[in-house]
Amino acid sequence: MGRVLVVDDDHSTVEAMAMLLGQDGHQVQGFTSGKEAVAALRGGHTSDVVITDFEMPVVDGAAVTRAARESS
């Protein structure tokens, strides 16, 4: 299956998404900080799909999406 990056500042949302997607066979990398997700993407983390909350403090979902596009 695919590699999914899940980013949300709510920890329980990340855990729930990771559990559900993992049950379908996806490899899930979850982050509760847009800043950490962007650092991972710029550090070489790859994913097939990005699911992100757009309203997060410090680094928002738009910045995560831009970093994902730049790293692909």
Protein architecture, described:
- With 72 residues, the chain is α/β, with parallel strands linked by helices.
- It contains three helices and three strands; from the N terminus they run E-H-E-H-E-H.
- It has helices at residues 11-23, 34-42, 61-71, and strands spanning 3-7, 27-31, 49-52.
- It has a three-stranded parallel sheet with strand order 2-1-3, sandwiched between helices.
- Strand 1 (3-7), helix 1 and strand 2 (27-31) form a beta-alpha-beta unit.
- Helix 2 packs parallel to helix 3.
- The two termini are 18 Å apart.
What do the pLDDT scores average to?
96
Instruction: State the share of residues found in helices, binned by percent.
Output: 40-55%
Low-confidence stretches: none
Identify the overall geometry. globular
The SSE order reads: EHEHEH
Find the structural class using helix and strand composition: alpha/beta
Q: How much β-strand is present in the residues?
A: 15-25%
Specify the number of helices: 3
Give me the count of strands: 3
Radius of gyration: 11 Å
Largest sheet: 3 strands, parallel
The strand line-up of the biggest sheet is 2-1-3
SSE topology:
Blueprint lengths: L2 E5 L3 H13 L3 E5 L2 H9 L6 E4 L8 H11 L1
Parallel strand pairs: 1-2, 1-3
Helix pairs in contact: 2-3
In short:
This protein has 72 residues and is of the alpha/beta class.
Give a quick set of tags describing it:
72 residues; alpha/beta; three-stranded parallel sheet
